[in-house]
Amino acid sequence: MLKSSPQQFALRSNLLVVWNEIVKNIKTLLAYPTIIVFWAIFPIFWFIPFILQGQAFVGGLESASFAQLTGSGEYVPFIVIGAILNSYVNTLLFGMGENLRKEAYQGTLDYMLAAPCNKAYVLIGKAISESLSSTIFAISQLAISVLLFGMSITLGVIIPVFFIVILLILGLYGMSLIMAAFSLMYKQSHDLSESIGYIFYIFAPVRYPIESLPTWAQIFGKLIPLTYALIIVRSLMLLGTDLSTVYLEVIALLIIDVALLLAGFYLFSWMEEKTKKSGVISHH
């Protein structure tokens, strides 16, 4: 019988940590079915007012001036895509820090941080569980939008769009780790997460094309991973382009992902050591 090497044993152990964390968080989510209903359906009502507002301003759901900026005059699909991708921002930015805060409320945070495993894998498990729930919510919102607003989706764009969503999630993982680091030290990352969420909402092209912003705001918006994900996905779904046409945006998204992940892991490790030495980790 072949024996596992120490590296293989460590890998299996870490993957087991990730899996158990995913199972735990999914079970917690399923214990509150009203949350599932809320995130699957109610976000649609958040972007309906913008659709009605656009219809009131231009007298319909298409605009020639809007088409000059975006390449497509279809306002409804533009808004729907923005709302669905922005839902990942809402769940992932709030989810990581709030999960750690929940561990503190339940009295299990000290045990989690004292566990003989790499804490990064615990966080990865939490992040993956948040991503799974976000994807389920996004699919349900997209399906309802197809039924209500007549959006069309072809199989040819599903794979590249899925690839871009993964890249967006990776960048948000890095930001989530930063939120988790602040949650360790200050016991509350909700206000910071909400502030960053509003920054994304204003400077990323969630509700309007980035070209409509002032020049300085466009520069700031291009530092946000959501901006590139929205530009790419809308190009694929609304303009019928392929990834080779928006390869510069894909490269930019990859660079931002790497920078955020490195910063997130470094900051969380540093904050974990700092809180352990200062004794703040045991405070509530």
Describe the protein.
The protein has 284 residues and is mainly alpha-helical. The protein is 79% helix and 0% strand. The chain is built from twelve helices and no strands. The chain has helices at 6-30, 33-41, 43-58, 64-70, 75-106, 109-114, 119-149, 155-186, 190-203, 215-221, 225-238, 247-278. Helix 5 (75-106) runs antiparallel to helix 7 and helix 11 packs antiparallel against helix 12. The chain is elongated and about 60 Å long. The protein starts with 5 loop residues before the first helix and ends in a 6-residue tail after the last helix. 33% of the residues are buried.
Helix content: over 70%
Largest sheet features: none
Uncertain segments are: none
Mean pLDDT: 79
Could you spell the SSE succession in H and E letters? HHHHHHHHHHHH
What are the key terms here?
79% helix; 284 residues; 0% strand; single chain
In short:
This protein has one domain. 79% of the residues lie in helices and 0% in strands. It contains twelve helices and no strands.
Q: How is this fold's topology laid out?
A:
Layout lengths: L5 H25 L2 H9 L1 H16 L5 H7 L4 H32 L2 H6 L4 H31 L5 H32 L3 H14 L11 H7 L3 H14 L8 H32 L6
Helix pairs in contact: 1-7, 2-7, 3-5, 5-7, 5-8, 5-9, 5-11, 7-8, 8-11, 8-12, 11-12
